[in-house]
């Protein structure tokens, strides 16, 4: 009976460890994807700023 309980406890600990590892991987991926999205937004902002600057220059130099 004690052996069965210890075996069940070991399986539960292994399962929780695996779930924790998977959670960390998923969270890390989410953070990386979030950072990737922020990087893309920054690039788009830079491009829009450049377009605004070009449009302003064209308006002033017609």
From TrEMBL:
This is Uncharacterized protein.
């Amino acid at each position: 009976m004690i052996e069965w309980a210890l075996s069940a406890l070991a399986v539960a600990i292994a399962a929780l460890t695996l779930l924790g590892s998977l959670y960390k991987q998923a969270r890390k991926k989410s953070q990386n994807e979030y950072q990737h999205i922020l990087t893309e937004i920054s690039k788009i902002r830079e491009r829009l700023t450049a377009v605004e600057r070009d449009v302003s220059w064209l308006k002033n130099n017609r």
